[in-house]
Design a protein that fits this description.
Blueprint: E1 2-3, E2 14-16, H1 18-25, E3 38-46, E4 49-55, E5 63-65, E6 68-70, H2 73-86, E7 92-99, H3 109-120, E8 126-131, E9 136-142, E10 145-148, E11 153-154
Parallel strand pairs: 2-4, 7-8
Antiparallel strand pairs: 1-2, 1-11, 3-4, 3-7, 5-6, 8-9, 9-10
Length: 160
């Protein structure tokens, strides 16, 4: 379970379920010809806390290359709307994830621009995750500000 230290000016926390991380880890670019992968993060807003409980996986219509991933919104959005309805309108779109073919991933300029576009249309914090070959970069975006969370820690206990 990935749990970050407090972010922003409050004690808000980010919780990412271990099965979500395990599902995403399958897409790490460990081979020289592995293509980037990505999707959206779904979960719950509990006050100021964010709880990532699901993620979409790359869809057949997404565009994937060694150094790029372009998500086709329609299919991912359909999954998000289905989960939103199935949870009585409680599950929410929390952010995005993708991979980078580097050990310690760092957001590219394209990543930051895209995330800022997302944050400009929202009034709540959004989560962004990049899975590298060995490390994970996790950030929170609000308005125009995208910041890495404090060093994430991995825990096996149940948070909620």
């Amino acid at each position: 379970m990935l749990r970050s230290q407090p972010f922003g000016s409050n004690e808000a926390r980010l919780l990412v379920e271990p099965d979500v991380l395990a599902r995403l880890a399958v897409y790490r670019q460990m081979k020289p010809n592995a293509r980037e992968a990505g999707g959206i993060l779904l979960g719950f807003r509990r006050g100021e806390h964010l709880h990532v409980s699901e993620a979409t996986e790359p869809q057949a219509v997404d565009i994937r290359s060694r150094f790029g991933f372009h998500r086709r919104a329609k299919h991912h959005q359909a999954i998000a709307l289905e989960r939103w309805a199935a949870t009585g309108r409680k599950m929410d779109y929390l952010g995005e994830w993708h991979t980078h073919p580097e050990h310690q991933p760092v957001p590219s300029g394209i990543d930051v621009r895209h995330w800022r576009e997302i944050c400009q249309t929202r009034t709540v914090p959004m989560v962004f995750i990049i899975l590298g070959m060995s490390d994970v970069w996790v950030g929170i975006g609000l308005n125009h500000d995208i910041r890495p969370t404090a060093e994430p820690s991995v825990h096996n206990e149940t948070e909620y």
